[in-house]
């Protein structure tokens, strides 16, 4: 059974750095064909893709947020970590990690999401 | 960057009716790389369709996907009460590799 679970702070202050962890089970982060993406959703708004790390450790980022994002993984711990610097209130929202089938580019399993609020 | 435009923004229908949702892309997208998701309030999105027309595991056959090039469609043949939700299309390509549409809300008329 494939599961993903996000963890991290629920509240961060403006200008701080957010660090989120996605812990996966039911598959290995070294599996060929499987990668992990981070997606966020401001309250009442649409989904926004942030970053992706592939099975061979290739990394890609949202064009508009590239300068603020870093994605990495620890295969032995089954964890993918996303950091976002210089947080702003507009970054408030639910952050999801999801497994991607890289043969088709679809996100076939999602975590439950974690709500992050940016406020002083 | 490939922009995905979904229409209509909101679809008001009754249970039992047919729903047709559109996703138009700003550049040609391979049919292999077009997916659809359903999201209900307070829940994570759920994969419905991948490869433009293949149903994900456990998805009822009232959901179908079609299209190619820049025009893709999600059809729900007969709406069930649990189908009222927001639907997103998503493409996988190059730089950046993933983009989502703005969503279509299917609401009870």
Q: What does this entry look like structurally?
A:
The complex is a heterodimer of chains A (120) and B (109). Chain A has 120 residues and is mainly beta. Chain A has no helices and eleven strands. Chain A has strands at residues 3-7, 11-12, 18-25, 34-41, 48-53, 59-61, 69-74, 79-84, 93-101, 106-110, 114-118. In chain A, strands 2, 4, 5, 6, 9, 10 and 11 form a seven-stranded mixed β-sheet that branches. Chain A is globular and about 40 Å long. The mean pLDDT of chain A is 96. With 109 residues, chain B is mostly beta strands. In chain B, 0% of the residues lie in helices and 56% in strands. Chain B has no helices and ten strands. Chain B has strands at residues 4-7, 10-13, 19-29, 34-39, 46-50, 54-55, 63-76, 86-92, 98-100, 104-108. In chain B, strands 2, 4, 5, 6, 8, 9 and 10 form a seven-stranded mixed β-sheet that branches. A three-stranded antiparallel β-sheet of chain B has the order 1-3-7, with no helix packed on it. The mean pLDDT of chain B is 96. The chains are: A mainly beta (120), B mainly beta (109). The A-B interface holds A 37, 39, 46-49, 52, 60-63, 96, 98, 100-101, 103-113 and B 1, 32-33, 35, 37, 39, 44-47, 50-51, 56, 88, 90-93, 95-103.
């Amino acid at each position: 059974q494939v599961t993903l679970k996000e963890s991290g702070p629920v509240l961060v202050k403006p200008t701080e750095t957010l660090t989120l962890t996605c812990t996966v089970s039911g598959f290995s982060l070294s599996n060929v064909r499987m990668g992990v993406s981070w997606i966020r959703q401001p309250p009442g708004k649409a989904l926004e893709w942030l970053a992706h790390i592939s099975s061979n450790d290739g990394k890609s980022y949202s064009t508009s947020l590239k300068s603020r994002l870093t994605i990495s993984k620890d295969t032995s711990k089954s964890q993918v970590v996303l950091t976002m610097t210089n947080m702003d209130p507009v970054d408030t929202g639910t952050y999801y990690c999801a497994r991607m089938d890289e043969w088709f580019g679809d996100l076939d399993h999602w975590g439950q999401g974690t709500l992050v609020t940016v406020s002083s | 960057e490939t922009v995905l435009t979904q229409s209509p923004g909101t679809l008001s229908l009754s249970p039992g009716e047919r729903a047709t949702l559109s996703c138009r892309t700003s550049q040609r997208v391979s049919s292999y790389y077009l997916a659809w998701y359903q999201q209900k309030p307070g829940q994570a999105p759920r994969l419905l369709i991948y490869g433009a027309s293949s149903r994900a595991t456990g998805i009822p056959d009232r959901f179908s996907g079609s299209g190619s090039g820049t025009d893709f469609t999600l059809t729900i043949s007969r709406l069930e009460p649990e189908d009222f939700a927001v639907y997103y299309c998503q493409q996988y390509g190059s730089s950046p590799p993933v983009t989502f549409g703005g969503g279509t809300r299917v609401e009870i008329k």
